[in-house]
Write a structure and sequence with these properties.
The chain is of the alpha/beta class and 291 residues long. The protein is built from six helices and four strands; from the N terminus they run H-E-H-H-E-H-H-E-E-H. Helix 1 packs antiparallel against helix 6 and helix 5 crosses helix 6. The radius of gyration is 29 Å and the shape is elongated.
Length: 291
């Protein structure tokens, strides 16, 4: 049985840890409210932009429609979105496992030829794929440090230009979609080429173009793709805060359970020590009587 001093030291340590996890939960909750509002406000706009882009692109010529022209998928770029820090449950591991599974199951042949590149968004993804020798594009790993549309637009421009120049034939994004505080859904989404609108979902809207179709599409294409990428980062950011809040809440509860056990152990140890002292005193008194 552990000594009273050892048990008391463990109790102090667990109380300190519980205070830290509780504070982290409160910080995550404050950040979650802001990030949740941003993604909820962004989704309708992003959905509408994507729908318009898919509908209008069907009427473009192949020479102008470079962003939705399918090519043989020889060179692949995967954008993997994690967080910069840990202590958020399985948030990071889910994205990393999903990316590795995507490579092994869908792009095994391309990976064998070293034609699969990773663009990590988040420090955890950057560290994981760098250590394992994947071709990593690390210039955009720190987007979450200051999450703004301008920073994301720069990244989207780079990806679009690389795709248009033929450096990549296909671009996919792996990220966690925010559903609620306790639930994040791992999503694998094709970014480029833009998927054509499904036949049963296609809208026969009668658009009037001003000044003309080509000029409108030239401005709409990059704008829509930037919005789409920004939306996925907002989703990932809200998911991270939700996952961290849930993980810290659970850690605080677990610390409370450990404290109960430690206090019970402390009381039992203390009682045993007192009982032992009483027995020693009684034994000593009996010895004196005998003498």
């Amino acid at each position: 049985m552990a000594s009273l001093k050892e048990v008391k030291t463990r109790i102090t340590s667990v109380i300190s840890t519980q205070q830290i996890t509780k504070a982290m939960k409160m910080v995550a909750a404050a950040k979650l409210r802001k990030s949740q509002d941003r993604i909820i406000q962004m989704r309708p706009f992003a959905r509408k932009m994507t729908g318009i882009l898919q509908n209008l692109s069907s009427g473009m010529s192949d020479s102008d429609n470079w962003f939705s022209k399918a090519r043989a998928a020889e060179k692949i770029l995967i954008i993997a979105m994690t967080s910069d820090r840990g202590l958020c449950g399985s948030f990071n591991s889910n994205t990393i496992k999903g990316t590795v599974r995507l490579i092994q199951e869908k792009y095994a042949a391309q990976n064998a030829k070293k034609n699969v590149s990773i663009m990590p968004v988040g420090k955890k993804a950057f560290e994981f794929f760098t250590k394992r020798g994947y071709p990593v594009m690390g210039d955009y790993a720190n987007l979450f440090h200051s999450l703004s549309f301008d920073g994301v637009a720069e990244t989207a421009n780079f990806v679009m230009e690389a795709f248009r120049a033929g450096k990549f034939d296909k671009v996919e994004i792996v990220y966690n979609q925010f559903k609620n505080v306790a639930t994040q859904i791992l999503i694998t989404e094709q970014y480029l080429p833009v998927l054509p609108v499904a036949t049963d979902k296609k809208h026969n809207d009668d658009y009037i173009f001003q000044p003309n179709h080509a000029e409108i599409m030239t401005g709409l294409i990059p704008k829509s793709l930037k919005v789409q990428l920004f939306k996925t980062l907002l989703d990932s950011n809200a998911s991270e805060n939700g996952a961290r809040m849930t993980a810290m809440d659970k850690a605080t509860e677990n610390a409370g359970e450990i404290l109960k056990d430690l206090k019970l152990t402390y009381n039992r140890t203390r009682q045993a020590a007192i009982t032992k002292e009483i027995l020693e005193i009684v034994a000593g008194a009996e010895a004196l009587k005998g003498s």
